[in-house]
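Summary for the funding panel

The consortium committed to producing paired sequence-structure records for every protein in the target list. Below we show the first two records in order, beginning with the earlier of the two.
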Amino acid sequence: MQWRTAAGLFAALITLVAPSAGANARPPASTVDAAAVTTALTLAVQHSPSESGVVDVSTATELRSALAAARPGQTIRLAPGEYHGSFVTQRAGTASLPITLVGPADAVLVNDGPSGSGPSCPAPTSGWDSGYGLWLYAAPYWNLFGFTVKDSKKGIILDDSPHVTIDRVHVHHIDEEAVHFRRSSADGVIRNSRISHTGLVQAGYGEGVYIGSANSNWACHGNSGGVDRSDRVEVLDNRFGPNIAAEHIDVKEGTFDGVISGNTFDGTGISGQNSADSWVDVKGIGYVIERNTGSFASPGTFANGYETHNPATTPSYANGCGNVWRDNASDLGGVGMYAIRITSTSKCAGDPNVVHSSNTVRNALSGLTNIKVTP
C-alpha cells in the first residue's frame, strides 16, 4: 500500500495499529500503543513517496526553522529530547496535503518564556515570546501527533487555525490552559491525549481544553462576524487530570455543534477559583456529550459534574442551550450536587438541553440532574 504523501499516512496508520472495534468505532486511548503508532509512522514515511518530504529535527533551532518553512504535505519528525524555546508556525497545509508534526512521547517542547512586550491581541511579533509551548497562528490543516508539551505558560494554542488534529499528545505542568481552540479554529479534533497539572500559576485559568473565547474577548479573538466561532470541535477519548485547576473542558459562548465523547475525567485538584468547579462547563450550543466517565476525590472544590451557563451576548445567541447528554457515568465523590446541572430552562425554552436516562450517577448529594430526564 502506498500513500500520496507522508502526511497522508496519519489517519491510515491509526487504523492499522489500533485494534478493530467495528466500522464506526473509535478505539479508546488505553487500547492503542502510541509508541507502536509512532514507530509505524516512522517506518512508513521512510518507505513512502512524498511530494514535500520529511524534515528530521533534533534541536530547537532546527524545529523553529522547520516550522517557519513548512509546506503542504510535509512531515516534521522530532527526535527524542527536550526542545526549549518559542515554537510558532504561520504556515498552512491544505485539505489534501496537511502538514504533520510527529514525535515520540519523549520529544518534549518546553517554552521558558514569556519575555518581551507583545501586542494587545496575541499575534506573532518580533522580540516577543508568548510563552506558549506550541502556537499555530493562521495555520490550518495540521496534524500534531505523539509528542509532549510541558513547563510552558500555555500548552498548545490554535489561533485562526481550523482543521487541526491533535492526537496522542501529552500536555502537563502548564501555568494556564493546556489546549485552546481560539479565534475561530473550527473543525478541530483532540483525541487519545493526556492532560494534567494545569493552572500552576493562574488556577482559575487552568483549563484542560478551552473551546472558543468569552464574549468579553471577542474584540480580540473574534474574527467571524465579531464572534469566536471555534465550531464543531471534537474532544474524543482523552484522559484528563489529575490536578487540572479549572474545568477539564470549557465550552465558550458563541460556539456550535461540538462533540465531547469517550473521555475520562479525574477531578482531583479542581481549584474552585473563577467558578472552576466542574469537569465540563457548557456555554456553547448544540453539543453532544456522551460516553464520558468522571470522578472526583479530594483535595479540590467540586459543585457538579457538568454545568451549563447562559451568558448574554451581542449578537444574541441561545448560549448554553440545545446540548445533549447521554451514556455518561459520574461519581461525584459524595461532594458534588448533580451529575448534570442545567442552570436555566427558561432561557432555553426554544432549544432545550436534554439529559437522557442512560446517564448514571453515584455518590451525588442531589442526584442525576435538576431537570426532567428524557428516556
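The next record, for a separate protein in the list, is shown here:
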Amino acid sequence: MSREDVKAIANELKTQVLILGGTVALMWILEFFDLTVFHGQLDNFGIIPGSPIGLRGILFAPFLHGNFVHLAANTIPFVTLGWLIMLRETSDFFVVSVVSMIVSGLGVWLFAPPHSIHIGASGVVFGYLGYLVFRGYFQRSPGSILLSLIVLFIYGSMIWGVLPTQIGISWQGHLFGFIGGAIAARILSPQKRYKS
C-alpha cells in the first residue's frame, strides 16, 4: 500500500468520524438544552400523527430524545451501524439516513395513534439495520453478504422492535425505518446490466 493510499484512508476515516461525531454531538447538545433550558418542550417538535404540523417532526424527531437514557440507547447502534454503512461509500450514509428518516417518519405520521408525539433516532437506526441486512441481498457480492450476516448475528435481536411489544415504544417508527433501510439498499445497489 502506497503512502498516498494510507493518506486517503486516513482522510476518509477522519471524514467519517467528523460526520458521525458531529451528528451525535448535535443530538447530545440538543438533549442537554432541552432538559436544562427548555424543560422538555423541544420534544413537541416530534412527529404528531395525523396532524399537519406534526409533519415537521419527520425532520426534527431523530435529533430529539426523551432523556439521556433514551439518547444513550440510540447512540451506540447509530454510530456502529452508521459507520458500517460508510465502509463502502461515505456518501451512502446520507442517502440511507434521509430515506430512513422520511419513510420512518411518514409511517409514524400515517399509522401511529393520534395525539401522541414520537421522538428519537431509533427509526433511523432501524433504517441502518434494514439497509445493512438487505444490502447483501441486493448487491450479491461476497463482502456485502458477509457484512449482512455479521450484522444479523450481532444486531438481529433488534428486529423484534418492529412488533408492538412494549408500550411507549414507537414500533411504527422501527418498522417503517427498517423498510426505509431496505428501500435505500435497493436504491444504492448497482444495477445489473445485461448485453442483448
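Regarding this second record: The mean pLDDT is 93. Residues 3-188 form a domain with the Rhomboid-like fold fold (CATH 1.20.1540.10).
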